[in-house]
Amino acid sequence: MERWAERHGVDAACRLAEAEELADAVEKEITPDNTVDTYAKSWRVWQRFCADARLPELEATRGSLVAFVAWMLREGQQNGKGYAPSSASTHLAAAVVGLRERGAKVSGDDQGAARAALEGLAVKLLQAGERRGRGQAVGGDIDGLRAIARACPDTLTGDRDKALTLTGFHYASRSQDPAGLLTGDVTLHPRGLVVAVLTGKTKHSVRNAKIRYADDPAICPVRAWTAYRTRLAAEHGDRWADPSTPAFVGIDRWGHVTGGMGPDSVTRAIKRISTRAGVPIAWTGHSLRIGLASVGRTKGKDGIAIADQGGWARHSRSMLGYMQRDDGWDDNASAGLT
């Protein structure tokens, strides 16, 4: 502020300081809760490292950041085991954000050295045959959807579960997507549903995913959504038809509606639903998203159409990674060339 006062006068400096405070408030307001949680968790990891290494928390040097990376891979978890490289990468990035927020200077070169060390050590782990982390979640598929639809009980919870899974598959949902939907975000159309999905991390935008009626009524997302919402209003009142109410509600074991579902409850629900259906490998909150990309590719859908439906950037690397191949024999680039 002193620098601004010297250049522009005290009144202008005060206004500039107020603008900075407003910018900080806006940034805080638009930062998603899951990002805030990640920053907080990563800062605690950094604090544990500093306590273990007896280093000052607010001093980030090339050596301390490289040591942080090595410590995370070696023993960083609270149970004494090492983190997976992907988790270590997340904690490194978030810890740097936390350091800068607290006034510590972190040079790009020092951060780059730590990231280079992380990448090199990750290669060493692979060369040693060590695999860490859960790996990519299993993708949802049509057989799994059929099994899930058959296994859903004839209750409000069963109808909710069926609608959650079938609609989520068709717009490549992540766990936070259905948790953020309101009733008014899902509208009926003569050809199906239009789901207004809130996207973006620093600038909110909406994509309107169109979901058509399925040829098979048993796994039709439009019919499943309509049945769920009709039953919810019939059993718990028309107030749940209000556009401002949650699209997907939590339901306790006694059938009481507990409010809107959160991302964690969606993840738990998808796992429970798939386990109940006897799916060989339990699905996670990301399985529906992977499933649309993978099944869409298998069915010959255009990559750009898949990207637009799921909210990926066109030619997204992450989307291409989701396009899993079964065994590499039928879907083989060299098959039939000679």
UniProtKB/TrEMBL annotation:
Presence of keyword Zinc? no
The GO terms this record gives for MF are: DNA binding
Any single biological process term in GO:
DNA recombination
Q: Which UniProt keywords apply?
A: DNA recombination, DNA-binding, Plasmid
Keyword Transport appears in the UniProt entry: no
What protein is this chain from? Integrase
> To which species is this protein native?
Streptomyces californicus
**Lineage in the entry?**
Bacteria, Bacillati, Actinomycetota, Actinomycetes, Kitasatosporales
